[in-house]
Structures are given as C-alpha cells and as structure tokens.
Fold this protein.
Amino acid sequence: MHWIVIFFILHILVCTVVLCLRILRILKCGYINIFIAFFVPVWGMVMLIRKRYSDKHSEREGEEIDARMPTAEFEKKSVPIDQDEKDIVPLAEALAVNDSVTRRDIMMDILYSVNKSIVVENDDLKEKVVPLEEALVVNDTATRRNLIIDVLYSNPSEYVAQLNDAKENKDTEVVHYAATALAEIQKDFDLKFHDIMLRKAEDPDNEATDNEYQVLLENYIASGLLEGDALKNQLRNYSELLDRKISRKETKGRWTLLNKKADADLKLRDAKALDKDVVLMSKRWPEHENVYMYKMQSAMLKKDSVRIREIIKEIRDKNIYLSAELRGLVQFWDEKAG
C-alpha cells in the first residue's frame, strides 16, 4: 500500500507541474489533455506527451492569438509611419502652397476617407417619387389606400395638411382612414390639454407646467388642425400665457417670449396688444430691427400711412440695420409714396 500512496503523490506533483507550465504558456497543450492525464495515471500522461510531440511535428500547431480588445496605444504602435512628423503641414497650408496635382491628391484622400464608410444604394425609383397630395389624386385605388395606411403607421401628426386633403378624396375608404387619423391626432392633443389643465388648477404658478403648456400650444397651433375661431382661441390662450410668463421678474429668455407674443398678436390682428409688446421690447432693445418691424406691422393693422412713414424716417435717421423682410417693407412704402 505504501508504494501506491507514493505513486499517486508523484503523479499529482507531475500533473501540477504540467499545469503550471501550461498556465505560464511554456507548455502548449489543451487543458482537457491535462485533465485526462490527471484522472488517467500513466497512460493519460503518455497520451499528453505523445500528442504534444505529434502537434510539434505537424502543421496543426499555431500561434496563440491575443484576443484582448486593442487599445489606442496598441493601434498607434501598429500604424507604420513612413515620414517624419516635421514634414507634416496643416491641410489649409498644404492646399495653399502645393502644386495642383498635390492639391487634387489631398482632396481625393479627404473625399475617400469621408465616403468610404457610407454605403450609397442606387435608387431606381428616385425620379418616380411624387408628393403625397399628387399620389392621392393620380394613382389607382389600391395605391391611395396603401399610402394612407403608411401614413397611419408612420407619424400621422406630420401629415395633417395631406390628411385634410385626403378627406376630400373621391375614395370613401381613403376619406375614412384620413378622418380617423385626424380624429386620433385631435384626441391626443385633447388628452394632453386635459392633463395640463388639471395640473394648472392644482398649482397655477408652476413654471414647469407653464413651459409644457407653451410647447403644447405651439405644436397645436402649428399642426394645421385649427382654423377660424378655434385657431383664434388658441392663439389668444398662447398670447395670454406668454404675457403671464413675461410679467414674472425671474423669467429667462424674455426677448424670445416677446417676439413669440408679438407674432401671436399679429396673427390675431390685435394692434393694441402688439403696441404693448413693442413698448416692452423698446425698454431693453430700442435699436433692434424687430422693434421697428412690429411698429410698422402695428401701423399697417391700423392702416395709418402717416405713422408708417414716420417709422421709416426714424429707421433711416438712426441707421437701423435692415433685414430682407424689413427692407422689403420699407421699399414697398417708398414705392407707394413715390
């Protein structure tokens, strides 16, 4: 029995040494072979040695691959540098001083590097694409219905104008789909307004709720769902909300809010409210062109040609910067006066 214990101790020591050599990558073999050698004394070790000898004299043995993720440092080392850094000049300088051939080569390199990762597929149908409004008019019944269904499954709120046109289509199914989509968009707005109004009732001065209400009103007004008195009512709500926000001393972005309110009052054709907006603008930004733009718009709402010419004279006397829109108004009234 004594010699059996010694044998197993020697066997375990040998296997341990083999395992250490494998961990240190001195011995190249699979861990499964060491596992077999451990549990099959003598013959397992013989098999391991025989397989190692066989691998060494055959083409099956390959270099181990380091599967670690490449680091930036590793990538830098792997990039061959054929030229000295002192030969490199800025791109702008290279384009300015080099000859035409070099400049073209540089630009081709840039274009290649920009475009090589972009896959551009040939679109044979590109010239066959027509606006949705035209497609609803000229295409066959199946195509019209498929178009409307595509709109319903994409983002119908972006196609309100087209859906309104589709309601006048001769195809009753297209009309039904369009009306259903518009009703769903309207319902979504109604639910959002209801939720905000409940929160405003609980906390009327909550700034975050007012900001959310402002964005919702802007989206609703711009959606194309509103017209006539409904549009005027929402514009009035929008103007009143902005007026409350502007009246707060801690309000940020006052200039932007004033411009938005002036635009809303202009759409409402409310010259009195627009004059109030202009007064507030003039207190902090007296020389800004928008002040004179809204002054002229207010005078035009009142049909006060004398006041319009006074504003034009003031613009010229103060040498106010004229944008294309303001310049067009001034030229229009100059021609009218002439």
Q: What stands out?
A: The mean pLDDT is 74. Residues 172-202 form the longest helix (31 residues). The chain has three domains: 2-54, 131-225, 248-338.
